[in-house]
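Quick one: structure tokens for this chain, please?
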Amino acid sequence: MTIAGIKRSNLFSPNHVGNDNAIFRQTAQCLIEAGHQVKEYTEEEFLHNGVEERLIFTMARDKTTVALLQGLERNGVVVINSGFGIENCYRANMTRLLLGAGIPYPQSVIVDTSRPGNALDELGGRNIWIKRGDFHAIHKEDVTFVRHAEEGYEMIREYALRGIDMVVLCKHISGDLVKFYGVRGTGFFYWFYPSEAMHSKFGTESINGDIKHLPFDALRLKEDSLAAAETLGIDIYGGDAIIQPDGSICLIDVNDWPSFAPCRNEAAVHIAACIGKHCCV
């Protein structure tokens, strides 16, 4: 079977262009070794020319690309990750869905940057994350930590000046930061401490301080992250969680098709298996 693969534009791989390209290439190679043909497209090629294949794997994130993928899905094309799932991972959408499903997630408020009201005060006014709500973080300035409400309201004004009309305010959770990767339907799951692996996009991991290796239930982390992926409708996923001093787990981010950099070789095999199973449907 010929499968279309749509690459991620470099714009949407901040500080991880090489890693994102690598997992895409290895996944394609695994599919080829399994006997499939893979036709690769850039986001720009897909936008201008479309595809004829009825099975697509994609790391694309451009909003126009995602809308086109959703249209193909409505017409019976299988897309992994689904364009609807990719859209669900935009920050405000993700926040609504995870909180609505009861997934462990920080106390959060979605705010119109032109009318923030007293939203920061509602979260206690101290130690709050301000995150771009309409999309993923593309620049370092799309995720900001503020220690006081006055600083926070000024930062919200800066988001508004940049043309970002929506932000998510999240109460800071103290503890050990861990990063995780998974592939639905395969059993694959991997977690690690990003600060120890020197794995970072914007360096914000330092806010949580030194890793204390707090004890926690890794199986619970796997179950919570899988529940989040199912809620969002994505098969290939990753994210971040905080292990709190009492061992409880709080997811703080879930995203579609991350780089899998520390476990790429093993992950690519499972991602290809996830995609390949749809060839027989």
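The chain has a mean pLDDT of 92.
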